Amino acid sequence: MLNVDVRPVLGKHTSRYSLVSAVAKHARSLVDEAEGDRRTLLGKPVTLSLNDFLEHRYAVLETEHVRENRAEE
């Protein structure tokens, strides 16, 4: 199980739920792309995806609606 510090990715505006959802979607797209190209991934898809976010190759974009709902909580 990965236990990484995600605070740099979360920042002030990103919820953990949004990060988990974005990482999972990106991991699925990595798998689909590899299958389409008949390649083998050199790591677990979720680990590769999380690393993309941690290295700022991908970012979580939340809608204004999500940010407003989180601010009300």
What structural keywords apply?
0% strand; mainly alpha; 73 residues
Structure explained in plain terms:
By secondary structure, the chain is mainly alpha-helical. The protein contains 4 helices and no strands. It has helices at 7-10, 16-36, 45-54, 64-72. Helix 2 packs across helix 3. The longest helix has 21 residues, at 16-36. The protein is elongated, with a radius of gyration of 14 Å.
Number of domains: 1
What is the overall number of helices?
Answer: 4
Mean pLDDT: 86
Cα(first) to Cα(last) distance is 30 Å
Detail the topology: elements first, then pairings.
Blueprint: H1 7-10, H2 16-36, H3 45-54, H4 64-72
What does this entry show, briefly?
With 73 residues, the chain is mainly alpha-helical.
